[in-house]
Amino acid sequence: MTASGDPPLVGVVALQGAAAEHVAAFRRLGALAVEVRTPGDLDGVGAVALPGGESTTMSHLLGTSGLFEPLAERLAGGMPAFGTCAGMILLAAEVLDGRPDQRCFGAIDISVRRNAFGRQVASFEADLDTEGLDEPFEAVFIRAPWVERIGSSVKVLATVSPRSTLQDASATLAEGPDGLKYHRSVPVLCRSGPILVSSFHPELTADDRIHQIFLEMVGASVAR
Questions:
Q1: Residue 52: which residues within 8 A CB-CB, separation 6 or more?
Q2: CA–CA dist 19, 183 (Å, integer)
Q3: Measured between alpha carbons, how far is 5 from 165 in angstroms, rounded to an integer?
Q4: Strand order, beta sheet including 186-192
Q5: Which of 166, 204, 183 is nearest to 85 (CA)?
């Protein structure tokens, strides 16, 4: 809640991807939510969501729309943000396989790999045991990234074990104490301060609990 007692306004960047689905999820939870396409649309916004899509395209559109710099300034000032799939890539500190001209905000200290779970045909769903939720969350992964490095300020809320049919399965192998290689779980839901990021698309399900986690983070941030 804001100082006036009203729920904060959440702006959903609507340059590409499932922006309307994010807006609908926030509104189902009683939050005020609007689509953001220009710098002026950020007026009055107290938190932001960056949806899935194609991260290099979204990075380009953020530049041509004039949104990148004002959004970067707001994020640097502590504005809460929720990034899903491509949105996670844009909020990350490092994109391991990004294009040389790809820009990201560095809002959360993680390194991510784009399309790490494989191409569109490798899309899948998984029940995630998620910190803060009593029941598993059915997550939808579509050309999803994963997190390969987390900084000391980052808390992992959910992980998933990649399938052995991955394009680069070796990237998920870790050596056990017996010297054998095992598939390790990779982080797919992380938070750091007012920033929440997910590899998957919670907006494509009828389960709004991940959005609720973010709104609770926004409320805590405003209360401070």
A1: 17, 18, 84, 85, 86, 87, 142, 201, 203
A2: 34
A3: 50
A4: 32-36, 9-13, 47-50, 81-84, 195-198, 186-192, 155-160
A5: 204
Residues known to be catalytic = 85, 201, 203
Q: 9-223: CATH homologous superfamily?
A: Class I glutamine amidotransferase (GATase) domain (3.40.50.880)
**What residue has token string 């502590």?**
78
Residues with Cβ < 8 Å from 11, sequence gap 6 or more? Answer: 33, 34, 35, 36, 41, 42, 45, 47, 48, 49
Model-wide pTM > 0.85: yes
Q: Per-domain residue ranges for the chain?
A: 9-223
Question: Splitting the chain (224 residues) into consecutive groups of 10 residues, what average pLDDT does each group show?
Answer: 65 94 96 96 96 88 95 96 96 86 91 79 82 95 90 95 50 44 74 97 95 92 56
Q: Is 111 helix (H, G, I), strand (E, B) or coil?
A: strand
